[in-house]
Amino acid sequence: MKVKIRGLVPTKMFPKITSLHTFVLAVLFLTTALTGRALPVSFRSEIAPLLLAQCQGCHGAEKAKGDYRVDSYTELMRAFEEKPPRVQAGKPAASLILQLLSSEEADDRMPQKSAPLGVGQIELVRRWIGEGASFDGDDPNAALVQVIPMRRHEPAPAKYPRPIPITALEFSPDGRELAASGLREITLWNPATGGLVRRIPNMARRTLALAWSPDGKQLVAAGGIPGELGEARVFDPDTGDLLAVAHRSGDVVLDVKYHSIGAMFAVADAENRIAIYNSADFSRRRLIDNHADWVLALAWSPDGKFLASASRDKTAKIFEAKSGEAISTYSGHRAEVFGVAFRADGQQVFSTGRDGKIHVWKAELADTTGKRFGAEKVAELGGLGRAMARPRMVADRLFTHADPGRVRQHDADSRKLLREFNGAGDWVQSLAHHAPGHRLATGGHDGRVLVWDTQTGKLLSEFVASPGR
Amino acid sequence: MSLSRFTLPVLLAAASAHAASRQVSFQHEILPVLTRQGCNAGTCHGSPSGKGGFALSLFAFDAAADYAVLTRDQLGRRVDLFTPSLSLILRKPSTALAHRGGLKLPRDSREYRILRDWIDQGARTDPPGTARCEGIEVTPGTAVVLRWPEPVQHLRVTARFEDGSQRDVTHLAKFTSSDEAIIKVDSGGRVAGRRRGQAAVMVRYLEHVAALPFTLVKPAPGFNWVVPSSANYIDTHVHAKLRELQFTPSGLCSDSEFLRRVHLDLTGMLPTATEAGMFLDDETSVKRARLIDTLLARPEHAVFWAQRWGDLLRVNPARLQAKGVQAMHRWLVDAMASNMPHDRFARALLTASGDTFTNAPANYFRAASSRDDALETTTQLFLGARLACAKCHNHPFDRWTQDHYYGMGAFFHRVQRATVDKKKGGKGEVLVGTASEGEVTHPRTGRTMAPWLPGRGEVSVPKGTDRRAVFADWLTRPDNPWFARAAVNRIWAYVMGRGIVVPVDDFRDSNPPVNGPLLEALARDFAEHGFDRGHLLRVILNSRTYQASSRSTPANAEDRQLFSHYQAHLLTAEQLLDAVCRVTGLAESFDGLPAGTRAIALPSPQMNHAFLKTFGQPSRDTACTCERGSGPQLAQALEFLSGDLVHSKLESGDNRFRKALAAGKSDHEIVDELYLAALSRLPSTEERESARRHIAKSDNRAAALADVCWAILNTNEFVFQH
User: How many whole angstroms separate alpha carbon B214 and alpha carbon A156?
Assistant: First the structure.
């Protein structure tokens, strides 16, 4: 299925309504049109998405301009010192928020330095306040993103108009299937033949990481819509049923890693958080809000007691899973850290970053008192070039790293370069490794998946993992 | 109505389909759009660490990195190949999603469409073999004069490509005005004048920069040009410019103003009361020219101008050690005293080797302790160009590229500096020399850089030749356009209070001289006279322009840059301290220096002297003239009103007026003497009368005279050069 992708591309093939609030507006318009009288405005499905997209950037927990936050219903309605609340239930005209949204003066108008909200959007806010500014969810203190109803994502196109970049790739535990990122779906492929096996719909627009449970009964897909939504969805890989939306955030979820025993999995998101979920009921065991920037990658220690993280805040850290305490911080990259992996004995950690180097440092897992210290560097391997893609490292008996177009295998003990897998014509955006079967798969930005035998270095199959290409 | 409602979207759709049929060029359209919309500006995503985790190269100097960041980085999150309008690089700047940088890319803009079409086409790089852009031309190409009532000009930008083709890129270029108060330029290249004056419009397309100077002429009511007299070519050029912009020059300054002005400029000191009296009484017509010659020959002249060079060459003990400072100070004083030609001066510094304690010029490379420092210092001092920006990226406002930076750096790469400390049997001197090999590697491309010279290109230097000598040969050639211009502008600024190019060491197309012909004429004269500093000073100081009054007239009050009248400026810290000492008759003493040493003769800054610090004495850390503070500040006013130094000198029993009292002089005589010493003139009748009345009222003559002296020191006439 080697495909040339050029020629005329019909761009109007997909439903036009894709962004959240245009969708909301369309629904509103339809309901109004059909009933003749509008239904009450819903905070959860109509106001919260608007606040999230347009206001929370400046009025959130991170940056609260004017000491005003809108990241939850409670915050939105809060009175500040002697001033009246910005939202006066039942009194739109008296509500400062509405005055600022509809101001004619660009200097006063919210959102600042932005195009004004549409007439329909302002009308929605006016009606909601007029109808009593009520909360129609369970927890008024919950973050907006948690309040917005779980979405059913648009179906994927039957045939892709162009190959999709493969940003996530993972072998099933038995090695017979290869799950890949699709457009609003997960696609499952036969790694030997490149044949499409199955499609799992109802995933968010982009999938950035995949993880199978060790028993193969669950497949967790992390991703979202950049700048808008992050989700970790759990599917039954056989039936394609959605089992849960385990994690949600205001920007994408960047990584997910299943615990080796299988009782839990951990996710990392672009709101700088790490969360650990029970795989039995998808309840949250632990939320770790320790990094100062996006958490790009995670790795469990071989004994399953520790979790290593790589972050855009230029550090890699190790946390004790049980307590969520940070026990070690490594800042030797002095640049964004893209990936982390434990050596098989759990004594050392490998990390890669935008500095184009692999750093090897001591894991220091003995200290679980919660005392933080800088981890000690053991070695540094250079020569990765101007690596920008996120590498995926798999540290079993081998250790691999991807930078634009090239995949390398290092020996974890001697740190010698064992092999190179060169065949990807574009950036490698994802790596999957199946240790028992000695298989390595790479997913390219150009949509191509290459499957290799790690013992011989032979290329076994090559296909474009996009249905219809 | 209903018809037009339907036709419009159809037409738009047709237009967009048409646009999409042609491949949008990443290099020639997307990168310029990012620059034009301000995305990659230094304050936004072009800053070294980017903004919000999204970093572009400053003004798109690194196309490959920008392409990777836009399309591949962070798992390709920024572009959506399936629904282009959902791309983060469109949703954020159009504020469909919150964008801290505000609205930069309206959905209905042409720039938005270009980006969207490019993504729609697959967000690809240009096919191999795409012709590179070689340069741009802006029409109209020459200096433009705009006149009211329609001071408007439309610019057109054409890009030339290496395959010989040309394309109109006006809609992709970025336009910037050098002075928004004088001219405005919009994104379509429409220039509109706002008030009389001169300014430049800078045009940028990719790394190509062009600047177009504009002169805005607004008829001044009642303007009537009466040809003023000219002393030399300086006046001719200044008057031509003034006439063009309809300003009338002020008349000549008075003898006492001239006397004080020229003494301060040439010797750094006030004339003594005796000198003042003699000059004012002199009746000969050539007395001003004669005074200039006399002062140029005075040893104080060499000392004062040595201090100016000491500032620029960073002569301070932290860098050179006390012995190095002494050596350098003596060498500079000698160079000024012997009127060493400027080309020889530059060459001596740039090619110096040996022991910094015994061969003073070698301290040039001790102060400039690295290749990059030597390059940046040399270009700033002798070419008037600030190259530091080009170290990390192409210069944002100029033609200098990173290639130029490292190419020129090759001339200084082999300079070696070895410190001989106590352990090695020395006293901390540095031995400067050159290695016989060693090449510069370009940090981005990894290329080995051949020595490169502006206007010459790459040059090959024979083995065994000191590359610095090759550089100095090129630098000091009479036809080198940069060397003489930079030097004359600096000297002009010292005596006129303002450069023809401001800042004096920041020559750029986008920062044009306020009077180009004047600068050219001065530079030519300087070069033709063997880079004779004394000659140049003589020409400038004898001009009517230098000798103009500092009082403006209604016909030139608006002008601050064309030299229609003399620009009054604060005395330097050292001049002012010496002046206070002179008026009070009490010398200042400095740490470790003989009593009676004047502040202008200090070999290096007195770091612990509060008065000098307050008035902007530089610590000599940089080679920039700007290090010397020149703006008036509140602390300075307080220093004179109630500062320790002024107060103690007024209270001292040995000061000028107390000694005069003891000698039995009259109030009248003493007040006259104070005025002559401080202001180089006698008091007016009213001034004399009010002083007399004040002293008469008081029962303590000395205290009353202290008040009079204090009042004189607190006048603008005293603290300013005018």
Answer: 58
